[in-house]
Automatic annotation (TrEMBL):
Keywords from the named record: FAD, Flavoprotein, Oxidoreductase, Tricarboxylic acid cycle
Gene name of this polypeptide: mqo
Protein name: Probable malate:quinone oxidoreductase
UniProt GO BP: tricarboxylic acid cycle
Family according to the record: Belongs to the MQO family.
EC number: 1.1.5.4
Reaction catalyzed: (S)-malate + a quinone = a quinol + oxaloacetate
Length: 482
């Protein structure tokens, strides 16, 4: 016999943790079960060393604003991150989250570019964004002395005869340890009666006649099968989500495919270097590079220890997760998505060329890439670490950037596909999911949602006073710069 529960969360990452936390606040009487195939939560994309830890708010990421005159997408990403900040602020006040510095810290967000074309673009971008309330405080400079004050390692021994350069800086950027955040949220869920079952790999999702879902799993330790009936299922399993959604048989998944891209970072924990670089510095992506491969030199704080990361350097594996199957990329192929996937292959030859070039890079070549940011970099100070696997969405013959929720028409099951900005915008993604999957309940939940996220249903950028007051309130509560 299988137990019937209200909600099953598949995957132990930030998305399941966020959704579970929201549902526990909204419906404390619901029975929730989380299933994670690993022996711990937050071991894939949410793990601190599998991502850059950037609080993605479009302060420095150029790929969110390809047209320097159109700030709409950048503003939208920032709005979403502000909702995450508000949720975390409320959870700190409730005692759900511990000392904020265990998961979020200030780290100015910078953009650094070289060459006349990119300098002109960055200046135009700055002129557009400085008028936006959510980008209050953005600074621009082409002066090496100013940029040296912002980030000394960028300027030391940079030849004055080199091509022109420019930078922007927003002091109010953040570094987020999503692994620490995820673990604390799951600890709270367990304390509240949620069953968090580790080493449980979901094998099959089957719709039942009564509208529930039979969730079949296997305990990887005892090799014993498990069965749950769920009124609602959320598939937050990273790259594994497409396989489970395809197996569920919902028509909404037709046409989708994913393309796995891995990454590596150069890392140093040398205290002297860490002390001299307190920012996250992004630049332009190489021709053909996927959006998530924008080069950046990042200050990180993980488990209280400071370090610097540079990268990412793209890698290729057919696996959808670091601990996935070598057959993942093949096993997703269906008659309804093969045409779209082949079109992606044909129309993205620049990506193929880029990936081949990345795979051929030696450690010395990667240090050379680092020196474009940090001219004084010494290869002996840096080690190469493996980052996470990302599964980029393929749909309608295009390789898409961002995240996308796929849900059944009746709202009984939903899953998340895609990558960046992902974790930083988890609150908004899950709020949208609640609205689409629980349309008969969302109005009744609104008062509680407004307690958690005071500007729920509103935007900030159109009201400068509200934007300033909200960012100041959350900054003070989280111990970060406003």
């Amino acid at each position: 016999m299988s137990e019937t529960v209200d909600v099953v969360l598949i995957g132990g990452g930030i998305m399941s943790a966020t959704l579970g936390t929201l549902l526990k606040e909204l419906q404390p009487d619901w029975k929730i079960v989380a299933l994670e195939r690993d022996g711990e939560v937050a071991q894939e994309s949410s793990n601190a060393w599998n991502n850059a830890g950037t609080g993605h708010s479009a302060l420095c990421e150029l790929n969110y604003m390809p047209d320097a005159a159109d700030p709409s997408k950048a503003v939208g990403i920032n709005e979403q991150f502000q909702q995450s900040r508000q949720l975390w602020t409320s959870l700190v006040a409730k005692g759900v989250l511990d000392e904020p510095s265990t998961f979020i810290n200030s780290a100015p967000h910078m953009t650094f570019v070289t060459g006349e074309k990119d300098v002109a673009y960055l200046k135009a971008r700055y002129e557009t964004l400085k008028e936006q309330p959510l980008f209050e405080g953005i600074e621009y400079s082409e002066d090496s002395r100013v940029i040296h004050q912002w980030a000394p390692l960028l300027m030391e021994k940079r030849r004055k005869t080199d091509e022109p350069f420019a930078a922007t800086r927003v002091p109010a950027g953040t570094d987020v340890d999503f692994g620490s955040l995820t673990r604390r949220l799951f600890d709270h869920l367990k304390d509240g009666g949620v069953d968090v079952l580790l080493n449980h790999e979901v094998k099959k999702l089957s719709r039942q006649k009564d509208g529930t879902w039979l969730v079949r799993s296997r305990n990887k330790v005892g090799r014993t099968p498990g069965y749950l009936n769920a009124r609602f299922v959320f598939v937050g399993a990273g790259g594994w989500a497409i396989k489970l959604l395809q197996g569920s048989g919902i028509p909404e998944i037709k046409g989708y495919g994913v393309f796995p891209i891995g990454g590596q970072f150069l890392k140093t924990s040398d205290p002297a270097l860490v002390a001299r670089h307190r920012a996250k510095v992004y630049s332009q992506a190489a021709v053909g590079a996927p959006p998530m491969s924008v080069p950046h030199l990042d200050a990180r704080v993980v488990d209280g220890e400071g370090s610097l990361l540079f990268g990412p350097f793209a890698t290729f594996s057919p696996k959808f997760l670091k601990k996935g199957s070598w057959l993942d990329i093949v096993s997703q192929v269906r008659p309804h998505n093969i045409g779209s996937m082949l079109k992606v292959a044909v129309t993205n030859l620049d990506l193929v060329k880029y990936l081949v070039g990345e795979l051929l890079k030696t450690h010395a070549k990667k240090i050379e890439s680092l020196r474009a940011f940090m001219p004084t970099a010494d290869g002996a100070d840096w080690e190469l670490i493996q980052a996470g696997q990302r599964a980029q969405v393929m749909k309608d013959g295009k390789l898409q950037f961002g995240t996308e929720v796929v849900s059944a028409a009746d709202g009984s099951i939903a899953g998340l596909l895609g990558a960046s900005p992902g974790a930083s915008t988890a609150a908004t993604i899950m709020l949208n999911l609640l609205s689409s999957c629980f349309p008969d309940r969302i109005a009744g939940w609104e008062p509680q949602l407004r307690e958690l996220i005071p500007t729920y249903g509103e935007t900030l950028n159109g009201d400068r006073a509200k934007a300033e007051a909200t960012t100041k309130r959350t900054a003070e509560a989280l111990g970060i710069l406003a």
